[in-house]
Amino acid sequence: MYVNHPNITLPDNNDTIVWKYLDMSKFLDMLLSQQLFMSRSDKFEDQYEGTFSEPTYEEIKKIAANNPKFLDYYKSHREKVVISSWHINEYESFAMWQIFTQNTEGLAIQTTIGRLKEALLPESQTEQYIGAVNYIDYKKEFIPFEDMFFPFLFKRKSFQYEREIRIISDVSANGMKIDNGLKVDVNLNQLIEKIYIHPKSENWYKNLVIQLVSKLGFDFEIEKSDLESDILI
Questions:
Q1: Which residue of 31, 77, 110, 142 has the lowest C-beta tally within 10 Å?
Q2: Could you name the domain of life of the organism this protein comes from (predicted)?
Q3: How many domains is the chain built from?
Q4: CA 70 to CA 55: how far, in whole Å?
Q5: pTM here?
Q6: Planar angle of CA 215, 218, 220, nearest 5 degrees
């Protein structure tokens, strides 16, 4: 269930377009389970996920001097936070295709922030928040730590190209133990506005995706990527 969080910022316009780039296996898993996978924060490739900038860490060390458990709690808390990453962009991103799809059989889900909010179902075991990632200099800039979500909503400036929106959830209160991540129930018809097929894929692949989606009872609009349109001379 989506819950508004007073300390987490998000673009005001619910029509802001967001994307998720993924391979066929992950897409099929989403359709078959009708659930969205959220990865455990410490399982991301970026080892800085959920950690602090240097100025913040120095401040926390002072507090932890008299309370060693304070720092240990922050370290272990990364295992209790799960994240689903989305990319803000009015248009397709060539860079995102390159980074997040390993071959020519990838897909991109296009939706909006408003649809993301509405797609998260109230029956879920955990509350989900949605926030925009802030990109800062980890050597110089301070990350607030009065809210437990803040370390997961900041990344290094070198990741600015991601323009990331995150669905984020903390399972601490539920006493849940998670391995690689957690699946949450979603309304896929609400979540997915349109599907784009990898720009370098063959026509048979687009037809396969159309058939699979239809056989599973969905009627999403499916397009071939605009990045491979015919050259006009």
A1: 142
A2: Bacteria
A3: 1
A4: 17
A5: 0.89
A6: 125
CA–CA separation, 192 vs 20, rounded Å?
10
- Specify whether the CB–CB gap between 37 and 131 falls below 8 A: no
pLDDT in tens, 4-51: 776 688 888 999 999 999 999 999 999 999 999 999 998 888 888 888
Tokens, residue 161: 């190209």
Task: Determine the Cα–Cα distance for residues 162 and 19; give it in Å rounded to an integer.
Answer: 11
Q: Measured in Å, how far apart are the chain's first and last C-alpha atoms?
A: 51
Contact 168, 78 (CB under 8 A): no
pLDDT at 125: 73
Q: Which two tokens stand for residue 131?
A: 């926030």
What length is written for the chain? Answer: 233
- Residue identified by tokens 């900041």 is 154
Does 184 map to a domain? yes
Flag whether 177 is in a domain: yes
Residues 6+ apart with CB under 8 A from 88: 11, 16, 17, 18, 132, 163, 164, 165
- What would the 3-class secondary structure string for 194-216 be? EEEECCCCCHHHHHHHHHHHHHC
